[in-house]
From TrEMBL:
A GO molecular function held by the record: ferrous iron transmembrane transporter activity
Family statement: Belongs to the mitochondrial carrier (TC 2.A.29) family.
GO biological process, one term: iron import into the mitochondrion
Catalytic activity: Fe(2+)(in) = Fe(2+)(out)
This protein's name: Mitoferrin-1
Pfam families xref list: Mito_carr
Bilayer topology annotation: Multi-pass membrane protein
Record localization: Mitochondrion membrane
Per-repeat ranges for Solcar: 1-63, 73-157
Length: 207
């Protein structure tokens, strides 16, 4: 839904006023499973991406805290660790997001994840999977083919085509998706962290 709603020049048949309208229209006209196209590649990348995120975050947080605050809890260390961990996480997830978004576009020509990966690699090269990872962006929804060099140009283009509201298109869909996703990820992480730490302490005391 976020992908469809954030398109700056959507097909007349793919214009939506709200998340509910978008979901209803997509399901009725394109089928029940259409909003979930490409989710398998996202699930495939989520495991290693989150593993890298949490491993990097914990390691850097501990090392930097010891350096900056002599073993204490440093907010600066936490911030730096989170930033670096996010970079690694997005390095894995960015290609998955690119494939997912292309498959969820209106009238997407891709029949499968593998077909999408092969076509993008063949026609646009490996860099296409990381365009949005850096400040050099390329907008390509519904075959617009408009190339954007840098964040300044991107911001200007969004404002020209969508005004201030253009920056917030699809934000409801993003929040609806991110809230349970983040809650589940951090809950599972904290549970296993607590469980493993407790088990390790019990093992030490029993020796």
């Amino acid at each position: 839904l976020q992908t469809r709603m954030q398109s700056l020049q959507p097909d007349p048949k793919a214009q939506y006023r709200s998340v509910y309208e978008a979901l209803k229209k997509i399901v009725l006209t394109e089928g029940f499973w259409r909003p979930l196209r490409g989710i398998n590649v996202t699930m495939l990348g989520a495991g290693p991406a989150h593993a890298m995120y949490f491993a990097c975050y914990e390691k850097m947080k501990k090392s930097l805290s010891e350096t900056l605050q002599h073993g204490g809890n440093s907010h600066l260390a936490n911030g730096i660790a989170g930033s670096v961990a996010t970079l690694l996480h997005d390095a894995v997830m960015n290609p998955a997001e690119v494939v997912k978004q292309r498959m969820q576009m209106f009238n997407s020509p891709y029949k499968s994840v593998l077909a999408c990966v092969r076509t993008v690699q063949k026609t646009e090269g490996f860099g296409a999977f990381y365009r949005s990872y850096t400040t050099k962006l390329t907008m390509n929804p519904l075959n617009i083919g408009r190339h954007l060099s840098g964040m300044v140009t991107a911001f200007k283009t969004v404002y020209q085509l969508g005004g201030l509201s253009g920056y917030f298109r699809g934000v409801q869909a993003r929040v609806i998706y991110q809230m349970p996703s983040t809650a589940i990820a951090w809950s599972v992480y904290e549970f296993f962290k607590y469980f493993l730490t407790k088990h390790k302490l019990e093992k030490r005391t029993s020796l």
